[in-house]
Input
Amino acid sequence: MKSLNLTFSRSYGAPCFAVLAFLLSAAALPLTAASDVSVRAGIQPAQIQMGQAAQLTVEISGAGSAKVLLPTVQNLDFVYLGQQSSWQMVNGLTSQKVFYIFQVVPSAEGQYTIPSFVVEAGDQKPTTSALTLKVGQGQAASNAATSSSAPAVASTSTMATATAANPAAPATASPRVTTTTLNGSKPTLPPGESAILQLIAGKTEVYVGQLIPVTVKLYVRADRQAELGHTPMKLLNDAFTFAAPTKLEQTREVLDGVPCNVATWNATMTPVKTGEYQISVEQPLRVVERVKSRRPAGFEDSFFDSVFTQYHAVDKDLQSPAQTWKVLPLPGEGKPDNFTGAIGEFTLTVKAQPDKVKVGEPINVEMIVDGKGNFDRVNAPAMTSTDGLKTYTPTSKIELRDEFGIEGRKVFTEAVIPNRAVNLPPVVFSFFNPELKQYVTRTVELPRIAITDAPAAAVAAATPASAPASGQTAASVRTPKPEDDHSSESVLVPIKVELTPFVANFDPVFYNPVFVAAQGIPLLALVAGFMISARRRRLESDPDYARAHETNLAVRAELEKMNLAVTRNDAAAFFTAARRAVQHRLAERWRMKVDDITFDAVSGHSAELAESLRNLFLVADQIAYSGEAHTEVALVDWQKAIVALLSRLEKKA
Output
């Protein structure tokens, strides 16, 4: 009789009525399990860089559940990611395996040895062999929690095997995990919740008009699939203006031992009314939730969790916990006359050039306001006096140094023309400092500029000749020449109005060889386009070319879907597109229909190719039929592998 081999994985489980029916029928059969419990552990990859994480997998055979007692290793953190279960029936005999998966996050480079550790399975306590992990230089270790493991499942050849025959074990300890605090308190995921939203601010007592930087964090369980809504984030209070954030940073953090994917936004708020208000932000979110269905008698074991689990996409308007904010008015006492609403902490620097001018010549004054605050309310500093000066409206430019838009500098440039020889007055700028709770005025002296009176001849030269004095004829008014002035002072030179000589060329333009050559360019382009079109029509009539062309278009479309899935971290969409791209390429190569390219068909054509595609077809089927999020899959690594495979298939074709 042909043996029956059925494998069911908890990680990929979905309500599958065929499997359920088989399990119900198989429940009546006598089940025989191995009496001994064996354990083996492996780490993949065995060599990583700082800023990356490895995956530790503990495989337990012969037991439905166990307790893994990981050791304590200096500079290594073990983060529990979840477990998977598999059940096999061969010729009426059953066996069960449980896989416990941990993320290993290093905090320093070096070569580490993870000593053997105990796994408690009932009254048996098998131990594993020691493992090694090498950590090289890389990016900052603070980003290590964001890394994912490689797409390949841990190879059995790299796993150390142990049995219950070796019960000795070193001192054990619970895994160490990193946690996050918000405003001095640790956030937690309430029971049954898959996502929370947090608003983080440095202070909740502010002044009206003050620019307040805030951070918004969205925590989603790593085993849940989530998608941001199309409506932007909003503030649930009209007493503040809110600059809705557009740029987000994605990381991974652990809350009370639960791995979470974290989206972080930086934004700003500005109060427009005084008083006390309840502040909260809202973010639309769609989350795929797991819902357990009612189980029949005899299936209470946790092994059947994945069979009796359904998945539903739930739309939520996620809100952060409300915070009480107090908005204070700006004090009226001590308010400077030149205060324009700038709130923060600023410095003032002033420059002026040139250092020597005559009356009527412009002076360029540059005023730089540097610091932190609401730069939209920072107006140009003013001179304490404009007596003897003609001023113009200044221009400005702003240079911000942080993503909140609160730190930077604003540069004002103003033209000043002296009407007589005077000293330039000081420049003043006033603002309100919320930390000191008082107004501050910066006064800066302008550098000394040597201003001299213009000579009479220069003034006369600048006088329009079209406006003679009463009783004078136009011929009696002349422009003085430099030699008429015997003083050592230079004079203003009048604008030159005479036309310079020019030479005209009356040769026709078509005598120019460049012009003649240019007329041939459109004709050459037309001929080239006709030849390319004719060649394309000839190739399209070729069945092989048409088939290859259609395949290339289809593969390119699937690659675009893969790129989009990587940016969204959508494992289901990625593997569906990847498998479809491979099917298109193989269908062209073997002259088959695309839907006929299955793993069995590949195995029949090429055993070597089937081995390369085994993981792709297996993971694609498991994700497609299970609905699991699979956020632990490193899509970027998978993408590189699939693109390389498609390139090889195209060359062989």
